[in-house]
Amino acid sequence: VSQVVAMLLRPLIGILTYIIMHRLTTQLLFASSSSSAASFFAFAFAPTLSISSGRRLSIMSSSTTTSADKSKLQYIDAGANLLDSMYQGVYHGKERHEPDLDIILARAYENGVDRIISMAGTPKECEETLQLIERLDKEHNSGDNNERVKVFGTVGVHPTRCAEVFAESCPSSSGDEDEETTNWIPKTEAEQTLIISQMIKLINQGKTSGNVVAVGEFGLDYARLHFCPKDIQQLGFRKQLEMAIETKLPLYLHNRDSGDDLYDILLEYRDALVASQGGDEGNIRGIVHSFDESIEVATKLMYLGLHIGINGCSLKTPDNLKIVEQIPLDKLILETDCPWCDIRPSHAGFEHLQTTFPTKKEKQYNRELAKDFCVKNRTEPCHVAQVAEVIAGVKGLDVADVVAASNRNVHRVFGDLEKIEV
Question: What count of Cα atoms within 13 Å lies in the side-chain half-sphere of residue 47?
Answer without folding.
Answer: 6
